Amino acid sequence: MKKIMILGVSFCVAVALLIGYINFGHESKHVIDSAKLPYFNNANDVINNSELIVEVSKIGEKPVSYDLGEGLYDNLTLSNVKIEKVIKPLKGKKLDVGDEIWIVESEWTDKETGVIHHTENYSKMTDNKKYRLYLGYNSEVDNYYPVGLLYGKVPMNTMEKNYYGDFKNDHIKGVVEELQKNP
Fold first, then answer.
1. Does residue 150 belong to any structural domain of this protein?
2. What is the dihedral of CA 100, 177, 52, 140, to 10 degrees?
3. Which CATH number goes with the domain that contains 71?
């Protein structure tokens, strides 16, 4: 009986170690997807092209996949954020401090492969962190999107990166830094 118990415990320990090795020892693969981005000369261009400017905290997210037909899908993340400050209100729609809105984010994870996709190095917001968002509005589905993708999401913490990986576009980095200094 003791031998069976020792073998059972040993087997459980071996399986637990193997699972820990598999989960801990492998990092997710990241892929940078290409897209055509608008060009903004400076922070004022971003501000002027934004329908809504708010400071928010991210409180949740959900993956979304739209079937475009012919085997094509548009995959994205919808992030739920809580408004902490309205800087530039959206015309025709009342939003207040404490309201929650959905933001389209161009980072998503392929459930089948575990591969994380970033459109043009976009990195989605992190839960409980604060951001200033320069947004456009899609009234058909009642959600918002960062204008110019990388320009439209600005971390309130200047130490937080606004992009994934080795992003080399110094112009966009400069405009985002300008937006961090001057809302």
1. yes
2. -80
3. 2.40.50.120
Bridge partners, 82 (sequence order): 57, 100
Domain count, the chain: 1
pLDDT per position as a tens digit, 82-93: 999 999 999 999
- Residue 26 has what pLDDT? 53
Condensed to tens digits (0 to 9), the pLDDT of residues 108-157 reads: 998 889 999 999 999 999 999 999 999 999 999 999 999 999 999 999 99
Residue 18 lies in a domain: no
What is the model's pLDDT at position 167? 86
Q: Count Cα atoms within 13 angstroms, Cβ side, for 146.
A: 29
Residue 9 lies in a domain: no
Residue listed under structure tokens 């919808």: 78
Range of the domain at 120: 31-181
Calculate ∠ Cα 51-33-149, nearest 5°. Answer: 15
